[in-house]
């Protein structure tokens, strides 16, 4: 056996019989060919040997396992010698140290014929190529881990914003993106792409916004990228991106306080549905007359305080958690709300059931969902609003809020758009809402096919300019309109609403 001290390895040895094998070896450094196992297989075929690449612990990295002397392997991996050769009548063995960013390996080649200058050079140079490939692989892996950690951190910040914990969100963001969330308001955008290219689109969103926005791969929708943009220029940056790619769509919210990120997200998703029908593939949530804006603000705040008062007995963090979860759970499915919040769907359902029990109502009833949704959206502004206490008129109830002239006129005008349709979709819609959005139950009550119910509800969407088949703000406004004109009964609450 012969060994050579570390540091004396021959560098840049020229092949003895020609450069053909060197050209083949260098091909493995091309991006499409960077595979250590392929290099080891190539070496085996080129020198006619059994080849093994193993680490200091004896784990086989590539090739076929060989019986190697443990002490010799330890000397090589420890750096005491750089290479070794061993011969017997049946076998000739070459071992070469392979540097690795985290630990050294041994490249061993065993064959029946002796190693000449050419085959020895091939083994030595192959070890050098493997070193490069392992270094690149380790670097790529580290870069991937860093990108993954950064993406997880962005998602965590978004989830904090979704539950209105803006203080914690700012603290988390300050470490990597100082000043990102210093603004009090922001717009939320949703970029839709083919799921197969979403990662690339997310990177382009980061580049387009120059990392002045929070860019998150949506945990609920595989093709969506969520962008929270405190800067006014973010919208134009994203529109420019959409113009460059024919397969992208963009929906945006109006500016909201950071505490209303969940509301802004719902607006962006609603606008995204409209963007699919726009020539420029972009849309911003259209500000329109919402029923709560037609109600007396002080009376609405007082009513909201009374409706949500059962939650006031809870610890502050528990109350905030239940309110934020319910707000998202009423806008989206439990599964999607869970993904956005980073919890299980059972957790979302359990929290919403607790709110149901505290309020004494049933979220299977669409009218109850609409009323609680109204209270939750109003409640967001309560901490900074005057008069949100027991000084409000204790006798004012939901019927009083809905019976105001402005609200009734709005409701009559909205639902009146359906009266010109001879199929009477207004009756179908009313029955469908009363059945909790269940087309089969509504069909039984009307004596028609369930598909007919779905078609009537779907045909009402463009007329009312609201999405109805997906739970959310649009549907709840239509439910409130039915309550205001008396087409539906008010929901039951254990405490009078």
Automatic annotation (TrEMBL):
Residues 336-377, 427-469 form the PucR C-terminal helix-turn-helix domain. Pfam families: HTH_30. It comes from the Bacteria. PANTHER family: CARBOHYDRATE DIACID REGULATOR, DNA-BINDING TRANSCRIPTIONAL ACTIVATOR ADER. This is PucR family transcriptional regulator. It comes from Streptomyces cahuitamycinicus.
């Amino acid at each position: 056996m012969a060994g050579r001290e570390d540091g004396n390895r021959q560098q840049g040895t020229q092949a003895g019989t020609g450069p053909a094998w060197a050209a083949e070896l260098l091909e493995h450094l091309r991006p499409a060919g960077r595979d250590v196992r392929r290099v080891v297989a190539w070496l085996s075929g080129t020198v006619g040997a059994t080849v093994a690449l193993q680490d200091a612990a004896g784990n086989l990295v590539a090739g076929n396992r060989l019986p190697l002397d443990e002490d010799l392997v330890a000397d090589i991996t420890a750096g005491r010698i750089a290479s070794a050769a061993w011969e017997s009548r049946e076998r000739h063995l070459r071992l070469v140290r392979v540097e690795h960013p985290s630990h050294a390996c041994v490249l061993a080649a065993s064959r029946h014929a002796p190693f000449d200058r050419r085959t020895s050079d091939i083994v030595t140079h192959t070890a050098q190529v493997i070193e490069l490939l392992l270094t690149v692989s380790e670097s790529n892996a580290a870069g991937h881990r860093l990108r993954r950690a950064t993406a997880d951190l962005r998602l965590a910040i978004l989830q904090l914003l979704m539950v209105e914990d803006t203080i914690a969100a700012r603290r988390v963001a300050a470490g990597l993106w100082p000043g990102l969330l210093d603004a009090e308001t922001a717009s939320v955008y949703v970029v839709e792409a083919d799921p197969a290219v979403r990662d690339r689109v997310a990177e382009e969103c980061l580049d387009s916004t120059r990392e002045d926005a929070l860019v998150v791969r949506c945990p609920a929708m595989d093709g969506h990228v969520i962008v929270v943009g405190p800067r006014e220029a973010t919208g134009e940056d994203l529109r420019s991106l959409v113009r460059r790619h024919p397969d992208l769509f963009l929906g945006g919210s109006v500016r909201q306080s950071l505490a209303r990120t969940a509301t802004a997200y719902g607006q962006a998703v609603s606008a995204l549905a409209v963007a699919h029908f726009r020539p420029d593939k972009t849309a911003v949530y259209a500000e329109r007359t919402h029923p709560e804006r037609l109600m007396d603000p002080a009376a609405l705040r007082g009513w909201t305080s009374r409706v949500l008062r059962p939650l006031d007995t809870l610890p502050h963090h528990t109350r905030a958690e239940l309110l934020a979860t319910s707000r998202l759970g009423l806008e989206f499915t439990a599964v999607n709300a869970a993904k956005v919040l980073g919890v299980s769907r059972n957790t979302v359902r359990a929290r919403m059931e607790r709110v149901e029990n505290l309020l004494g109502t049933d979220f299977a009833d669409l009218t109850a969902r609409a009323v609680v949704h109204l209270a939750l959206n109003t409640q967001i502004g309560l901490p900074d609003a005057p008069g949100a206490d027991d000084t409000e008129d204790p006798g004012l109830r939901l019927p009083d809020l809905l019976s105001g002239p402005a609200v009734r006129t709005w409701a009559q005008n909205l639902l009146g758009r359906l009266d010109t349709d001879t199929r009477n979709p207004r009756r179908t819609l009313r029955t469908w809402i009363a059945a909790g959005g269940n087309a089969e139950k509504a069909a039984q009550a009307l004596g028609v096919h369930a598909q007919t119910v779905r078609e009537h509800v779907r045909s009402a969407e463009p007329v009312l300019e609201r999405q109805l088949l997906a739970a959310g703000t649009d549907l709840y406004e239509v439910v409130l309109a039915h309550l205001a004109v008396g087409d539906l009964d008010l929901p039951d609450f254990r405490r009078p609403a």
